[in-house]
Fold this protein.
Amino acid sequence: MQGIGLLLLLAVALGSDAFSVAACVGLNGTTVRQKMRLAAGFGLFQFLMPIMGLAAGQAFGSLAGAIAAYIGGAVLVGLGGLMIWRALSVGFQCPAMVHESWLALLSASVGVSLDALAVGVGYGLGVRQADIVLASAVIGAVAFLMTFVGVEVGVQVGKRIQRRAPILGGAVLVALGILALLGR
C-alpha cells in the first residue's frame, strides 16, 4: 500500500502544474472539446516523459554506480525547490489559450511535463524500483484528471488556488527526494 500511496502522491505533485495551467485556461471559459484536448495533451506527455527520463537515467545510472540513487533524490529535491521558488518569486503566469492551436498545446504539454522527465531520470537512477510503464500510466491518468478538474476549478473559483498548486507540488517532490536520499 505504501508504494501505491507514494506513486499517487508523486502523480498529484507532477500534475500540479497541469492543474494550474488548466485553471488559468478555465478562467476564460472552454468547451468540453477544448477541455478534452487539453487534458489529453497534458496526460499523454505526463505519461511519456517519465519513460523517456528512465532511459536517460538508466544510461547515466550505470556510469554513476552506487551514488546514482542519491543523485536521483537530489534531482527531485532540486526540482521541487525550483517549483516552489518559481511560484513564490516569479508567480505563476497564465499561458495563452493553449487549447486553441496544436503548437500551443504541444509546447504547454511539454512545459508542464518536464518535471515528469526529471522523475523518470530519478527512477532510472534507482530512486524507486517500480514498473515505469505502470507508474507513467498512473501519472498520465492523474494528470488527465487534474487537468480536466483544473479547468472546472478555473471556471468556478478563479485565481485563488492557482498560485498554491505549484507550491504544494514542489513540496511533495522535495519530500520524495528527501526520502530517496535517506534510502526509503
Remarks:
- The longest helix spans residues 32-64.
- The radius of gyration is 16 Å.
- The helical segments are 2-27, 32-64, 68-90, 102-124, 132-156, 164-181.
- Residues 2-181 form one domain.
